[in-house]
Specification:
With 431 residues, this protein is an alpha+beta fold. It folds into two domains: 195 residues, no CATH class; 151 residues, Histidine kinase-like ATPase, C-terminal domain (Heat Shock Protein 90, 2-Layer Sandwich). The chain contains eleven helices and seven strands. Helix 2 packs parallel to helix 4.
């Protein structure tokens, strides 16, 4: 965390969740420090000029500033504000009523009134209003009447011009701090509104896409779940009518294919749900172990015996990533490669290769299967997209793979040529 010694000195290391309360605490602390330094400075000037009549009052200003500063650091914000505003109004009145107008003390009523407005929370507006009215009343009392508590100062002394300059500088500085506070708060509020508006538009677009995908999902799932069942019912009806052992065996084999397709579709739905809902939990993942697990799960697939699986992965190669999602991705790509192998080629293969780059891992899944037409490359990752009516899958596999790779912080691309084969490239961050 970035060190902020001045901020820590003024309000401590406490965490203030609200930006406005944080800025108020900082401003309140700065004003308290200015009171402290003003009191000390005036004492020094009076002693230097051997004028001692106001030393006690100046010392009191310094003490009040210190007390308000400590209260602010202790998070007694309202009490600290009351101490600053109330004591400042009274002290300004005492000096304004007893000294010539040339001292410039009157100008302090303005920054004190502004301080009352900005240092209280909005819910405490009645405090702010009350102190503003107190300041106005004291100003009118000092300006329009001859009543004074302190001994009245008549004539000029050596410090009058110096005090007027100091009073002007202090009043201007406090006023500038308050105006800056208001501008700063307004800037951050506008920035927050712009960010929230942008985020709202983004969320609205994401919701629209989600609703579109949900509509497609419900329609396709209902269709793909019903179709195999309808086929099974038809095959069962035929099996009940036949007396031929050969025909019964054929019908049973067709039933098994429909059940396998149904099971694969259900697994795809489960993978889709898991990818959408699971938290991202990186762990040390051995890629060779994942490939072995995948091949173990696919060992009964009819294509495995006719397609050679080749791997080019460094021994014990480990990647810190979400193991569950990476397994979903690779399982989809390998099973697709097996499913769409080219029966007319004498040697059929699926190759899984890992390249270790500087800041990312590159995983290649390549086959010499039937390939994909160029005009389908951008669409194969869409939900329920099938390149042709002869496609065997649910149309969910590659969509799930792309979404899972996104969750892993990576990207997936495809290169394919019809009749020659397909290569999927996955780029994943190492950490």
């Amino acid at each position: 965390m970035r060190s902020r010694p001045l901020r820590d000195f003024i309000i401590g290391k406490t965490i203030i969740p609200s930006l406005k309360l944080y800025k108020q605490a900082l401003l309140r602390g700065q004003i308290a420090i200015m009171m402290l330094l003003t009191g000390v400075g005036y004492v020094g000037i009076d002693i230097a000029y051997s004028i001692y009549r106001n030393v006690p009052m100046y010392s009191l200003i310094a003490v009040i500033g210190l007390v308000a500063f400590l209260l602010n650091r202790a998070r007694h914000y309202r009490l600290s504000t009351i101490v600053i505003i109330l004591s400042a109004n009274i002290i300004i009145y005492l000096f304004a009523a007893s000294e010539p107008t040339t001292s410039g003390v009157y100008i302090f009523f303005l920054p004190v009134a502004l301080s009352a407005i900005v240092l209280f929370r909005y819910q405490e507006w009645y405090w702010a209003f009350g102190f503003v009215m107190l300041g106005v009343s004291l100003f009118l009392l000092a300006f329009l009447s001859d009543f004074t508590i302190l001994p009245e100062v008549v004539g000029l002394d050596a410090t009058d011009e110096l005090y007027f300059l100091i009073n002007y500088v202090i009043a201007t500085t406090v006023s500038v701090l308050i105006v800056y506070f208001l501008i700063n708060i307004n800037y951050h509020v506008e920035k927050s509104l712009r960010e929230n508006e942008s985020r709202l538009l983004q969320l609205t677009e994401e919701l629209r896409q989600s609703n579109t995908e949900l509509d497609r999902f419900v329609y396709s799932v209902s269709h793909d779940l019903r179709a195999p069942l309808s086929s099974l019912m038809g095959l069962v009806t035929l099996a009940e009518k036949t007396t031929s052992t050969e025909e019964t065996a054929t019908l049973l084999s067709m039933m098994r294919n429909r059940i396998d397709a149904q099971e694969k579709f259900i697994r795809d739905i489960i993978d889709y749900s898991r990818n959408a809902r699971l938290n991202h939990e990186p762990e040390d993942t051995n890629l060779n172990d994942i490939i072995r697990e995948i091949m173990d799960n696919l060992r009964y697939a009819e294509e495995v015996s006719s397609v050679k699986i080749k791997t080019d992965i460094p021994e014990n190669y480990s990647l810190k990533t979400d193991k569950v999602r990476l397994k979903i991705v690779l399982n989809n790509l390998v099973s697709n490669a097996l499913k769409y192998h080219d029966r007319h080629k004498p040697e059929r293969f699926v190759q899984i290769q890992v390249k270790n780059e500087n800041n990312h891992c590159e995983i290649l899944v390549e086959d010499n299967g039937v390939g994909i037409k160029a005009d389908h490359h951008e669409k194969i990752f869409d939900m329920f997209y099938r390149a042709s009516e002869n496609s065997k899958g649910s149309g969910l596999g590659l969509y799930i793979a792309r979404e899972a790779v996104k969750k892993l912080g990576g990207q997936i691309t495809v290169e394919s040529e019809l009749g020659k084969g397909t290569r999927f490239k996955i780029m994943l961050p190492k950490n």
